[in-house]
Amino acid sequence: MRLTEFHQLMVDEFGEHEGKWIAHSHVLAEMGGTADELIERGVDPRAVWEALCDDFEVPAERRLGVDDAARR
Fold this sequence. Notes:
DUF3046, DUF3046 domain-containing protein
């Protein structure tokens, strides 16, 4: 997963400001850091996204993000 896709998924699910706050503040205990820290360390953004989805109980049907047509 590209970093831009990760950021778009965060915005789609949590919103612009809350998504940034979660990425910066929410510690993924099983992975040992926040999303921002983990990605900076080189962890695959997909693994980070899946861990966030698990922590925030994001349903499977929303884990792929919003369809591009729905954004328009």
